[in-house]
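Archive transcription. Copying these from loose printouts into the bound notebook so they stop getting lost. Printout 1 of 2:
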Amino acid sequence: MTFQVDGKVVLITGANRGIGRVILNEAIARGAAKVYAAVRRPESVDELVQQHGDRVVPVALDLSKPETIEAAADTASDVDLVVNNAGVLKNATPLADDVVDCWLYESNINVVGLMRMAKAFAPVLKANGGGAFVQLNSVASMQSFTDFCTYTASKAASYLYTQALRDELSRQETAVVSVHPGPIDTDMAHDAGLQDMTEPPQVVADAIFDALAEGRFHAFPDKMARQTAEAYGGYIDAVVGDASLPAKA
């Protein structure tokens, strides 16, 4: 299934900074009629409202608080595209003293938060003709990194859930995209010590809307992501079921 954002209504979690902010700007640049900026503090998108006017609508949403997700789904009853961008990362090695606490915190946002978003917004998308649901996973969903192993485990779980979500939502004509960035120039990447490996957030925004327009399930935005995709190509094609991989760099 393909999806064009022009003229559509979009909701983006974590839209006030980093990748989410760039996705919001790109959605508007590509003709989105309205973008709900779903953030924990609505006042944090005041600058975006000033920049884009009434095409940006702040909405309170916290992935750890299901009541805010349900309220946002009621508010954004006209949404055509949901981009679940918000996520968290903790630095934790496999035997760290706080490894369990890190896992519980990250999985509650990165996995359970995704489940809550899907359950709340799938009926809205169905009522509006199908639309699309985009999940920001990570290249770390396919490869573990020792220094933040609980994050990679949460993203692996999120990726598997996104695959199931694609199959389930196809029945209501909702396209699903799983996005797998490598290190991107954001606060999260800097906190993880990856600042020397990053690429700009714009590559993620471009990859999302290109994948939607071309009907692809996977989006591999940057060099590291594309290298991982090439290594996993046979598995992705044969097991996950997405033959539309990006061309080799």
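Printout 2 of 2:
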Amino acid sequence: MDYAAIPLNVRIVRLANFVTPVSGGLRTSLDELGAGYLAAGHEPVLIVPGAAARDEQTRAGRRITVPGPMVPGMGGYRVITARRRLRRLLDDLEPDRLEVSDRTTLRWTGSWARAAGVRSAMVSHESLAGLLRLSHLPARRLADRLNHASAEDYDTVICTTAWAAAEFERLGAPNLVRVPLGVDLDAFTPGHFDARMRAELARPDQPLLVHCGRLSPEKRPDRSIRALAELRRRGSSAVLAVAGDGPLLGALRTRAAGLPVRFLGHVADRERLARLLATADVALAPGPVETFGLAALEALASGTPVVVSRDSALPEVVGPAGAAVDDHPAAYADAIQTLLHPRFSAAARERAERYTWPAAVKGFLRAHALTDLPARRR
């Protein structure tokens, strides 16, 4: 498609912190939604932190990188801390809509938008109550206070699942909307099964498990290794492939000593990732604070059933194409052994077909009140 030939409608400026080249789900959603906005005739502009300033055109529209420091102990995440610089940039861009994918460090931009007369939306990509709980902080009271402030600061709060919306619903937030994310059903498909990759990772008689995600505490990658250890204790010959990188990599290698765990690092090539997910027998998504879980949905689209944490939003995403379990190695092992039955492969693909990026883009544009606006000349 010749994006340059599409007439522009409105300028949607999008802000996100904690984005890196290995950011996974957040980066995917930013790219896919931006490409959808562009295809719909709008002008998306994404602002993210990085090591150096950049201004470039991408398939998802204009991307502006603002220099920002690394957050210690978070495996390369950066944040935009120069408020004055960012405020000047927003003033210069003159957005028609502001979309913020950050619950904390960029919340002040909601006030900027209100003062500038710009309609704003905050996308809740994580559960604040869940993250605070993992940090052993007084989760509910603090989360309620911060979430109430967010709901007041923005015109719209966008949540991707009922689970993610619950912490705003209990506050009676009147500006809450739910819009599921999507998956590329052409890029991720059971047809990408790769016999050569399968032979490299495991013998024909060995069940191949895959954990795909950032190796950080909130994702609980250790649960996948503990599940494998339990399966091996039961006499299974299962093998685990871990696709991802992050601050816990060293600790996970130590925990996996003596177990058949293949650490693949971050898989940047989407085609290779699609082949990996289609080649695995069962995927594991054990993070307890996932608000949607794009990696799990990509596995489903690849025909691979998923074991997920009962505490997250993923049970409503995977439905009968997976299993939701408690945080215990035996529960994960039981679920894996159940999902190895071939009937779950078709169910996984069928479940994924409920979630498409065109539908997600349409829902996000509706949340921005951009359904029937006339074309705008600049």
